[in-house]
Specification:
By secondary structure, the chain is an alpha/beta fold. It contains 6 helices and 8 strands, in the order E-E-E-H-E-H-E-E-H-E-H-E-H-H. The two termini are 30 Å apart. The structure holds zinc ion.
């Protein structure tokens, strides 16, 4: 039975979100964590927060991270699609949150950056174009019409520590931006 969805009457846009990388592709590895491990946990916590608030789909069941091609194809079927990653850099002092997307998604990207940077107390690097990232993610942005969120730098010990200490607040902050985006639709 479908659970009662709190904002169902207000939801104007469909929502998809996914964990970057996959069960076979760990992404960056630093400070004892892999990117895939961090973002899969984040995606599942976000699903727990948003369930019973808005309708959404995601790239796999709890604990399952389907390949990027599957995520990109599903993303393209939704009005708003967001994929979570962690940033990584050779300089361990590189810090902050940023998003990568087409320009018409900068308002949502900037809202996500503000929410995450305030919650974690890390730099706001802002919403950027799709070629600004460290890996090739054109499929999710170009084909999937999605937004990549680089939550924080996995290679920065302070970023990681703050994330671990504030993970539930970060989930709620991101969830609230997405609820606003799909219920109002102004930023889409
Ligand atoms: Zn990544």
């Amino acid at each position: 039975m479908q659970a009662l969805v709190k904002y169902a009457a207000l939801q104007r846009l469909s929502l998809f979100f996914s964990a970057g990388h996959s069960d076979k592709d760990p992404g960056a590895a630093a400070n004892g964590f892999t990117e895939a491990q961090v973002v899969l946990d984040f995606r599942d916590r976000l699903a727990d927060y948003l369930r019973e608030k808005v309708y959404f789909t995601k790239d796999g069941e709890r604990g399952q991270n389907l390949p990027l091609t599957v995520a990109s194809n599903r993303a393209a079927e939704h009005d708003i699609a967001v994929e979570f990653h962690c940033n990584a850099f050779t300089n361990p002092t590189a810090t902050g949150v940023e998003t990568l997307s087409a320009a018409h998604h900068y308002p949502i990207g900037n809202a996500l950056c503000v929410a995450i940077s305030k919650t974690l107390g890390i730099a706001n690097r802002g919403a950027k174009g799709e070629t600004s990232g460290q890996h090739s993610r054109l499929a999710f942005i170009s084909r999937g019409k999605g937004i990549i969120v680089e939550l924080f730098f996995l290679t920065n010990q302070n970023d990681l520590k703050s994330y671990i200490e504030n993970i539930d607040a970060c989930v709620e902050a991101v969830g609230d931006v997405l609820i606003e985006a799909v219920c109002v639709g102004k930023a889409a």
